[in-house]
Amino acid sequence: MEGLTINTEFRQFVEDEVLPLTTLSADQFWEDVQSLVEEFSPINAALLAKRDDLQAQIDTWHKQNDYAAVGIETYQQFLTDIGYLVDEGEDFAIQTNRVDAEIATMAGPQLVVPMKNARFALNAVNARWGSLYDSLYGTDVIDRSGKLAPTSSYNPERGQEVINRGRKFLDETLPLAGCSHTEVFEYRVENEQFVALVNDGSQTGLKQPQQFVAYDGPEATPTALFFKHNGLLVELVIDPNSSIGKADTAGVGDIRLESALTAIMDCEDSVAAVDSEEKIEVYRNCLGLMTGDLEETVNKGGKSFVRKMQKNTVHTRADGMRHFISRRSLMFIRNVGHLMTINTIRDSHGAAIPEGILDGIITALIGSIDVRKELDSEILNSREGSIYIVKPKMHGPEEVAFTCALFSRIEQMLGLSANTIKLGIMDEERRTTVNLKACIREAKHRCVFINTGFLDRTGDEIHTSMEAGPFMLKDQIKTQPWIAAYENWNVDIGLACGLQGRAQIGKGMWAKPDEMAEMMAVKIGHPLAGANTAWVPSPTAATLHAMHYHQVDVFAEQEKIKLRDRASLQDLLTIPLLTETLTAEQVEQELENNIQGILGYVVRWIDQGIGCSKVPDINNVGLMEDRATLRISSQHIANWLHHDLCTKAQVLSIMQRMAAVVDEQNQDDPDYRPMADDTDNNMAFNAAKFLIFLGCDQPNGYTEPLLHHYRIEQKAQFA
Ligand SMILES: CC(=O)SCCNC(=O)CCNC(=O)[C@H](O)C(C)(C)COP(=O)(O)OP(=O)(O)OC[C@H]1O[C@@H](n2cnc3c(N)ncnc32)[C@H](O)[C@@H]1OP(=O)(O)O
Ligand SMILES: O=CC(=O)O
Ligand SMILES: [Mg+2]
């Protein structure tokens, strides 16, 4: 197309692999892309300029005013005067239609996965169901010491503890009339009813017989029994010949839980994709997920197998009719935000186009393949014919309106009906939080979720108030009034805007992927807080977190929450600034911890293109690190440097020391390139250095510009 310069491989990908699956012609498609880009790029640029302008005014205000002394009302008035805080307007309720039940009326875990990693992405879409037994046996939810410790082969005592916990779960979730599941020696179906035969010779059924949904196999010797509780399915696997089932009094081989109801296929925080080659990788996986053709050969434990997407299954209802069970998570696609540009397409002036616009067009184009499938297709994402896109890092209602306008335009060019593309709003920038109601109003025909991305949100908290003073220790920031207010405010506003029954009110990531016992203790707080979904980092975490939605009836909690007063805006605006003098040791330790995390993450991003990593912290706890956690750590150090809590020399010296620590942590990785010996010339080390030293100047404290720059340089150097 004259005017646009399109990367050749990308053009081939679109024309040879995607467009033939649609009714669109290539010429018309590129012509539409061009006019869309011409229309939307300048608006995108103006929105970014407004971000900078507001930030500059906030910086100046803090330099001229003592935030703590003037009082919160004065600060709030200032934010209103500059248009950062806008009028929230009249009450309204969202009107989003054609929303799948997994989003609108069900409550359960949401798994996030980097879409660039096909092996993980396939695992994620298949994580709709997970083994409770494996999740208990394989994690620290059960004590890992003493007689219960996992051993090189199966530890029967640990196994028995798994079975005990499984029975406890059954008693709590699917209680029997008059006895415990521990007393049952046989489960079967009789006269269209579920029946449990009890050790004392009696037989019983469920306290609530309607919980029984379906079964497999003969009535007298079923191989699987399916039940429903709090909207989620539970499968009792009966297999007396399996290694677990033969030691079980009732032949139960496993308890399987409906787990990740939804999954976010991520193009953003967890992904490193800086050029056409890497964007094509992401889009090709997206295509395979929507067509159902994605496959990956997995080599594991000396065995090799091909991982594919699960197909839905058919079972027998008690009355003999057929019952279908969904086996795949409903997929959202998270696009990148409005900030970055990408030269996969250059406009008629030769400028790289906004990456968010490219993601919007291409992921919706791929999503349109799903929308056009027949309802009885083997692999179908949305039965309601919707395309679910999550948009991150938007600042305020104007940016939400821009996204919606972009989606409308994309729908027109793809021939989709209005509001086919649904919008998940990440509530992860301060200007979106404080204007959340106005943001949702802009998307009232599309909104399918509001999610508190507290990690980016913490980074933005620091950057927005960079000039206000030094921030507290990172762990303390999480305990302050602003964050509790932020979490409650999101739920309060979501409920007031009618999200219940139409959309998700979601909560953020559990960022300690191996600490499952702690997750079980803490993350029940999410459903209790009224969230009908919350993020988990892995399929195992999804299965364990699913237990929380059996323990808590989220929709009942939401009814109670509707009666309380809305969280306080003034608490939200209370900046978590340091109020005490830290010791030199505290400063050093905080820096070491942050720097270890930054280097451990950045080195894999820059050198290997891995956008999400598990990196040990100073106490050797593996933390999920992604762009958002990097934003927090780098902004935190930049803030302390800016306010002289530490010096550049000190930071550099810790970086040098931590580079050696990170090198050692990665010594078993054959693809790893050590940093410590030649930090001056190491691209990853330099990226980390500038993320910190230029942190104050990064747009809203984002990490993408420097990460992209250094990965592109690194790829050029080692090409
Ligand atoms: C601020 C935000 O935006 S948060 C959202 C962004 N973050 C994410 O998306 C987190 C996604 N999670 C991950 O990428 C990973 O779990 C990490 C990086 C945290 C840990 O990865 P690893 O150290 O490789 O995990 P670990 O070795 O414990 O487990 C790997 C296994 O679990 C699976 N797995 C781990 N995470 C996921 C996931 N999110 N989805 C699907 N499968 C997963 C892998 O497929 C692999 O199994 P396989 O060998 O059968 O393929
Ligand atoms: O995207 C999620 C976040 O916490 O940031
Ligand atoms: Mg984020």
Explain how this protein is built.
- The chain is α/β, with parallel strands linked by helices and 719 residues long.
- The protein has three domains: 5-85 and 93-128 and 262-567, Malate synthase, domain 3 (TIM Barrel, Alpha-Beta Barrel); 129-258, Malate synthase G - maily-beta sub-domain; 584-717, Malate Synthase G, Chain: A, Domain 4 (Up-down Bundle), CATH 1.20.1220.
- 44% of the residues lie in helices and 17% in strands.
- It contains 26 helices and 25 strands.
- Strand 5 (193-198) and strand 6 form a beta hairpin.
- Helix 1 (8-18) packs parallel to helix 9, helix 22 (584-608) packs across helix 23 and helix 22 (584-608) crosses helix 24.
- The radius of gyration is 26 Å and the shape is globular.
- Bound molecules: acetyl coenzyme *A, the ligand O=CC(=O)O and magnesium ion (MG).
- The site of acetyl coenzyme *A has 26 residues, from strand 2, helix 6, strand 12 and strand 24.
Tell me briefly what this model is.
By secondary structure, the chain is an alpha/beta fold. Ligand LL5AMS7Z binds at residues 269, 392, 426, 428, 453-456, 508-509, 628.
In percent, how much strand structure appears in the residues? Answer: 15-25%
Helix fraction, binned, reads 40-55%
Bound molecules: acetyl coenzyme *A, the ligand O=CC(=O)O, magnesium ion
- Main β-sheet, spatial strand arrangement: 2-11-16-19-20-21-22-23
Structural class: alpha/beta
CATH fold-level name of the largest domain? TIM Barrel
CATH C-level category of the largest domain:
Alpha Beta
CATH architecture of the largest domain: Alpha-Beta Barrel
Q: What does the average pLDDT come to? A: 97
Radius of gyration: 26 Å
CATH homologous superfamily identity of the largest domain = Malate synthase, domain 3
- The number of domains is 3
Q: Roughly how many Å apart are the termini?
A: 29 Å
Principal-axes geometry comes out as: globular
Largest sheet, strands/sense/barrel: 8 strands, parallel, barrel
SS elements, strand count: 25
Task: Tell me the number of helical segments per DSSP (H or I, 4 or more residues long).
Answer: 26
Low-confidence stretches: none
Protein name: Malate synthase G
Modified residues (Cysteine sulfenic acid (-SOH)): 612
Domain Malate synthase N-terminal: 11-64
Domain Malate synthase C-terminal: 586-678
